[in-house]
Design goal:
7 helices, 43% helix, six-stranded parallel sheet
Length: 226
């Protein structure tokens, strides 16, 4: 049972910082380091696609100081790590309504997408920014209605942010919370779910190995019988 696509709900940055009596923005900074470790580990283990829930449509309700710090880290991540991923022949994608992001953040993302090698053979790194699963489905259906196309499963999938990608084989959430929180609702119809108690900044290569091992124990039937 090949494991091609792992999706991550990155949760627990704030709690990681709080337990150490540190500002929440420090937790987000450590979360970016964990993101880098996980991407590198997945690449080394031959995973073809990885998706990350970085900023949801609901996260705008957080304090403005925290939002500003998050986008500052997104810009730095785009200027540094994401550039190196493109140079390593990875395809970097962003899913969500990125037009709502601050201009300097959007400019940083556009630099990456303009440099992406669309036909590269490396891993696909897909990052959700201002992303919500329900909004994604509504946007796709509206586009079909406006175009006059028939509303079918295949046509909806062709309008999703993940067009051309496989559905996640497994969705992983950190921090012990057991819910999807509006993440990849269409794509997760038959995904295996793994919930890990560790907070996101504590994720590393060993965590990726444990996810791969757990997935190998699962039996996927997609509604049928084995």
């Amino acid at each position: 049972m090949e494991l091609k696509h792992i999706a991550f709900i990155m949760d627990g940055n704030g709690r990681w910082a709080k337990r150490r009596l540190l500002p929440r923005k420090i937790g987000h900074r450590e979360g970016v380091k964990a993101l880098e470790r996980v991407i590198n580990a997945c690449e080394k283990r031959g995973i073809k696609e990885v998706s990350f829930y970085a900023f949801s449509t609901e996260n705008w309700s957080r304090p403005q100081e925290e939002i500003d710090a998050l986008f500052d880290m997104v810009r730095k991540f785009a200027d540094n790590e994401l550039k190196s991923y493109v140079e390593r022949n990875m395809t970097v994608r962003f899913m969500g309504d990125v037009t709502k992001l601050p201009k300097d953040t959007l400019d940083a993302l556009n630099k990456i997408t303009s440099a992406v090698r669309q036909n590269g053979e490396g891993m696909v790194v897909n990052i959700g920014l201002n992303y919500g699963g329900r909004d994604e489905i509504v946007t796709a259906v509206k586009a079909l209605v406006d175009s006059g196309e028939e509303i079918t499963k295949e046509n909806i999938e062709s309008r999703l942010y993940t067009k051309g990608m496989s559905d996640p084989d497994v969705i992983v959430r950190s921090s012990g919370e057991k819910r999807l929180s509006n993440f990849m609702l269409w794509q997760s119809a038959y995904s295996e779910l793994i919930f890990i108690d560790d907070l996101w900044p504590d994720f590393n290569a060993a965590t990726v190995d444990s996810i791969i091992d757990e997935y190998a124990k699962r039996t996927r039937r997609f509604g049928g019988l084995k």
